[in-house]
Amino acid sequence: MKDMNVLHPVHPDDFKSYDTEKIRSRFLLTDLKEQNKANFAYTHYDRMIVGLVYPVTESVVLDNYSNLRADYFLERREVGIINVGGPGLIEADGKTFEVNKLDALYLGKGVKDVKFKSKDADSPAVFYCLSTPAHQVYPVTLLAHADAVSTEMGSLDTANERRIIKYIHRDGIQSSQLVMGLTILANGSVWNTMPAHTHDRRMEAYFYFDVAEDQRVFHLMGQPQETRHVLMGNHDAIVSPPWSIHSGSGTKNYSFIWGMGGENLDYADMDPVAIQDIR
Asked: Which ranges of the chain does DSSP label H, i.e. alpha helix?
């Protein structure tokens, strides 16, 4: 049985002394892109598993891992999956779901057999996955991008005109603790999550996609008065401790998936930070 890489938590006082490479090694996930396999990392931030399943020429089975001490991956877990690539298929306990770009599939506790597949190897599916512990069964649910709750926010004046799409949350797909959705920045807009916020009751993970090959996102993290930046490219993910802001600015517009695990399912549970208070 395989092991997942593990990310351990970091205390905010220790974070102040980290250099660039140490910050990248403790929070950034850039090794999720190997084809025809599931690429997962086990974090000790609310025990969230962050990963990418990238089936190109072969289907990929959701295997078990020794870290879980379980009989199968979803024995005590749930997973949210959003496709950011070409059209794909996910088979869950014998039922097949068509999951196209920006569609989301939720698999609840107790689903045993899961298989990922692309419909076209020349335009492969890219399935971003977040998995958290679950102690209650919720139904398997597919939500098409067009049917999800969508909200327009921001403006070009502040370079943050964006569309927020919510999939798994208190008023959407039901889950034990997972909250998940995505944000698409408009042409000419580069700022995400500014004004920034923290939420001491939940961790958060970001996954950037549709980032042009020669462009980057300056992801901001740290306590509001002690921020640092991390340069991120397409299909990079990063975890954010509850004490940290999670924000960023790109060299061009881009999209990202946000996901949280912790105390509640309330998307609006945030501790806002005024821009003039950030250091």
From this structure: 12-15, 20-27
